[in-house]
């Protein structure tokens, strides 16, 4: 087996084991493969290995990768290993002046953390007649992270987002703390889960609100144990 296939298999096995440990079904978990550190050959490889959900943290990189892979899929319509369609997830900080460009390539945005950004996405989505899926990024670590709405302001922002035309609020996203300390990571993910359940309990967003995007290479197993439904993993697949 080559390196990427091998790495991906390990990640999938770890996901299955973590799910088994906490009594979850691994079909509840979506793996978003983060391609920011991968070259195009590596991206094609993960597509061939059945990965249809890919993520990028910069608009420009996402657009280029999405275009390239689209051409590649069109050139290989009969390859049974390839997904019919790739869904691109925008996972990084998004500037308002990049929204319009982004929406042409990706309609799943994990990093909405201000009212003004949500309004900009909504305005552009109306013009394009699309309904992008939105995850609200919450700052759940005690570290002074730059991005993410503070936990205490999150319910209110969610209430505002769901009133906006064309936006579909599907869940929350959070970044684990930078530290490798497992207890700190666990506390952060537990806080995100609690907030997720609170918003769901209040039926903000309705049945669409069902995703908790958290867990990266260093902490995805802890995230699974704390209710993650979407993992964003890059380096442990491509390294
Ligand atoms: C890079 C990145 C990831 C993936 O991190 P790895 O440590 O490479 O698995 C996940 N989420 C965001 C927002 C990222 O920027």
Number of self-contained structural domains: 1
Class of secondary structure makeup? alpha/beta
* Beta-strand content: 15-25%
Can you list the ligands bound to this structure?
pyridoxal-5'-phosphate
Q: N-to-C terminal Cα separation, in Å?
A: 15 Å
Principal-axes geometry comes out as: globular
Helix content range of the residues, please?
A: 40-55%
Q: How many helices?
A: 9
Identify the CATH architecture.
Alpha-Beta Barrel
**Unreliable residue stretches:** none
CATH homologous superfamily grouping? Alanine racemase
Q: Which keywords apply here?
A:
single chain, 239 residues, alpha/beta, TIM Barrel, nine-stranded parallel sheet, 9 helices, 9 strands, 17% strand, globular, binds pyridoxal-5'-phosphate
Explain what this protein looks like in three dimensions.
With 239 residues, this protein is of the alpha/beta class. It has one domain (2-238): TIM Barrel. Helices cover 45% and strands 17% of the residues. Strands 1, 2, 3, 4, 5, 6, 7, 8 and 9 form a 9-stranded parallel beta sheet that branches. Strand 2 (53-56), helix 3 and strand 3 (87-90) form a beta-alpha-beta unit. The longest helix has 20 residues, at 182-201. It is globular, with a radius of gyration of 17 Å. The model has no long low-confidence stretch (mean pLDDT 96). Pyridoxal-5'-phosphate binds at residues 34, 36, 57, 91-92, 216-218, 232-236.
